[in-house]
């Protein structure tokens, strides 16, 4: 079994260490602080984990962290409330599809590291230099660097094509407090004040139990870029309350009696949003692999820090397992990061960067229309959990107008469509990618779980794409399509083909089937079909195909149930 060293004990590093160790890998975790020092130190970031990331963490049994005070409740964030201040203010609130949670990283990381050690993992406490990295690469098969502190931050060069900013876009401050009037329905409250900045707040668990987390994002050189003279925790709290009173008066009353949770409950600074090349080359020529903030440093404006950390750790873990006994060479590192970038990070980064810029007219129109249309407000709220769902309508005026009409229509439907989708999601299905080749020769693919057999003789199957699917025209033009049943390890492909992209097939291994239709490699089964009938029914198309060729190498299929991916298991009664 490979030996792996992970440098940096933040959220992504410790999660990866725990998961790999529990899968039998020999893992050494290296931190510059022990769990007690982390717990009593300063806060490290704002902290919110949305349901998609919680679902990834759940099998590891690390999603619920017991606070220091066992009597403290676990807070579930049920909704997002958004206010746009200014001459024409707007405000709305929408429930999240599934609750989010917030636990101070000091608590979370100290507990996870303690678990890692108690389960037999190796923990080293030291400050790692480039020279020390050289030593680690000589005795480990893979060295992962999940911290960009100090000289380690110079190992990974900036990817200019993915880094549009060369300086911080916000002056940042974080304040953890007690004594705040609670919301009737716990959630995330976000206020945007154009030209000034943003304030968002939500309840969470810290070292002393329940608290309220306050996050300030000030536009550079604006009135909220005012933290340089603050020198003490007391001054930090006072400045926080002054900003609320002046710029966010609707929120200020709740914080009248706010007190810091502890002297470590403050953080100030600046972040330049940056994407770096994930393969770092040491002076010896050996390579190390960047993870988390070391290579994808996002502004916290959209609360994606924990989402990104969790998803990055999961992508890396899966790629490590798939690699088996083969070496972790430079090409493998690049391929693994590119997979994470295509499947998750690019969407999170693009959305956050768009919010750091002045909102465009169509984006303001979307926010304003959400006041009148709960379905649209829900769609925007869902973007915090999964930023891929915001594409393409958040970024394109024409798409935004069409999407607004679609959401307005949902509000007049017979059922609450979000709830109806949830009910339908209780039927567990497999996950497929349906592929074809357009008349212009381009490869086309779309994720679908609306697949079923129709007839044995003749051999017929069907699937049902949305009438609004951008690639629908290619299927209408083609005489054939292929249904690729994904394996449990291909959830990355499910996400990749479910999200709009210029090239969904980037990095995907395929072969040509009937008529040149692309067939995905590594699936549990593939059915190559000739289209024999097509019907429009409601807001979907029904495609019936006659199977002309099939292959079923078998394996564990990817299963979708209740809005999450699952793996199959034999029922205990059999």
Note down, in words, how this protein is organized:
The strands form 6 sheets. Strands 3, 4, 7, 8, 9, 10, 11 and 12 form an 8-stranded mixed beta sheet that branches. This protein starts with a strand and ends in a 7-residue tail after the last strand. It is of the alpha+beta class and 574 residues long.
Structural category: alpha+beta
For the CA atoms, what is the radius of gyration? 25 Å
The biggest sheet, with number of strands, parallel, antiparallel or mixed sense and barrel status, is:
8 strands, mixed
Strand portion: 25-35%
Helix count from the secondary structure assignment: 15
Residue share in helix: 25-40%
| Number of E-state strands | 28
Mean pLDDT: 92
What overall geometry do the principal axes of the alpha carbons give? globular
Q: Span between N and C termini?
A: 32 Å
Low-confidence stretches: 66-72
List the keywords.
15 helices; seven-stranded antiparallel sheet; alpha+beta; globular; about 575 residues; single chain; eight-stranded mixed sheet
Short description:
This protein has about 575 residues and is of the alpha+beta class.
Give the topology:
Elements: E1 3-7, H1 11-22, E2 26-31, H2 35-40, H3 51-57, E3 76-84, E4 90-101, H4 105-118, E5 122-125, H5 130-139, E6 142-145, E7 171-178, E8 187-193, E9 197-206, E10 209-218, H6 233-247, H7 249-252, E11 259-260, E12 266-270, E13 274-275, E14 279-281, E15 287-290, E16 296-297, H8 305-323, H9 330-356, H10 361-372, H11 374-385, H12 397-411, H13 417-424, E17 429-430, E18 432-437, E19 443-448, E20 451-455, E21 460-463, H14 472-477, E22 480-485, H15 491-498, E23 510-512, E24 518-520, E25 525-537, E26 540-551, E27 558-561, E28 564-567
Parallel strand pairs: 1-2, 1-6, 2-5, 3-8, 6-15
Antiparallel strand pairs: 3-4, 7-10, 7-11, 7-12, 8-9, 9-10, 13-16, 14-15, 17-27, 18-19, 18-22, 20-21, 21-26, 22-25, 23-24, 25-26, 27-28
Helix pairs in contact: 1-4, 1-8, 3-8, 8-9, 9-15, 10-11, 10-12, 11-12
């Amino acid at each position: 079994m490979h030996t792996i060293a992970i440098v940096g004990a933040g959220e992504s590093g410790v999660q990866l260490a725990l998961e790999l160790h529990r899968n039998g890998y020999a893992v050494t975790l290296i931190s510059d602080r022990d769990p007690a020092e982390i717990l009593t130190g300063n806060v490290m970031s704002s902290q919110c984990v949305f349901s998609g990331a919680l679902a990834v963490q759940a099998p590891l049994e690390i999603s619920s962290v017991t606070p220091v005070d066992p009597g403290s409740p676990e807070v579930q964030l049920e909704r997002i409330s958004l206010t746009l201040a200014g001459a024409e203010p707007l405000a709305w609130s929408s429930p999240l599809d599934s609750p989010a949670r917030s636990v101070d990283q000091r608590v979370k990381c100290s507990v996870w590291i303690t678990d890692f050690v108690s389960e037999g993992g190796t923990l080293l406490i030291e400050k790692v230099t480039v020279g020390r990295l050289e030593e680690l690469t000589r005795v480990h098969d893979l060295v992962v660097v999940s911290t960009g502190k100090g000289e380690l931050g110079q190992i990974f060069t900036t990817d200019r094509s993915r880094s549009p900013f060369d300086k911080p876009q916000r002056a940042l401050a974080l304040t953890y407090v007690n004594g705040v009037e609670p919301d009737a329905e716990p959630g995330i409250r976000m206020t945007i004040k154009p030209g000034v900045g943003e304030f968002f707040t939500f309840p969470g668990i810290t070292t002393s139990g329940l608290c309220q987390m306050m996050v300030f994002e000030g536009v550079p050189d604006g009135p909220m870029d005012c933290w340089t003279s603050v020198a003490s925790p007391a001054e930090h709290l006072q400045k926080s309350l002054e900003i609320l009173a002046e710029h966010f008066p609707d929120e200020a009353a709740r914080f009248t009696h706010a007190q810091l949770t502890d002297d470590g409950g403050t953080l100030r600074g600046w972040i330049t949003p940056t994407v770096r090349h994930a393969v770092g080359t040491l002076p010896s020529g050996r390579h190390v692999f960047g993870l988390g903030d070391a290579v994808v440093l996002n502004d916290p404006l959209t609360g994606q820090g924990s989402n990104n950390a969790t998803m990055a750790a999961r992508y890396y873990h899966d790629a490590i397992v798939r690699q088996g006994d083969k070496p972790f060479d430079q090409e493998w590192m690049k391929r693994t990061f590119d997979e994470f970038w295509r499947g998750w990070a690019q969407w999170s980064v693009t959305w956050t960067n768009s919010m750091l810029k002045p909102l465009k007219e169509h984006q303001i129109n979307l926010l304003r229309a959400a006041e009148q249309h709960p379905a649209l407000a829900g769609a925007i709220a869902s973007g915090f959990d999964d930023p891929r769902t915001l594409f393409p309508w958040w970024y394109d005026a024409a798409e935004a107008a069409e999407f607004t009409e679609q959401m307005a229509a949902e509000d007049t439907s017979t059922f609450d469509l979000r709830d109806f989708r949830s009910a339908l999601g209780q039927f567990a299905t497999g996950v497929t990618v349906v592929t074809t080749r357009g008349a212009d020769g381009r490869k086309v693919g779309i994720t679908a779980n609306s697949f079923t057999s129709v007839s044995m003789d003749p051999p017929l199957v069907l699937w049902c794409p949305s009438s609004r699917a951008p690639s629908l025209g290619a299927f209408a033009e083609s005489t054939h399509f292929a249904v690729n049943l994904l394996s449990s390890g291909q959830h990355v492909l499910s996400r990749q083909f479910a999200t709009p992209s210029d090239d969904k097939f980037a990095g995907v291994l395929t072969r040509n089937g009937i008529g040149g239709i692309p067939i995905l490699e590594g699936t549990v089964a593939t059915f190559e079909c000739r289209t024999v009938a097509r019907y429009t029914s409601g807001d979907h198309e029904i495609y019936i195909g006659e199977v002309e060729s099939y292959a079923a190498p078998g394996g564990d299929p990817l299963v979708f149930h209740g809005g999450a991916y699952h793996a199959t298991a034999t029922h205990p009664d059999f």
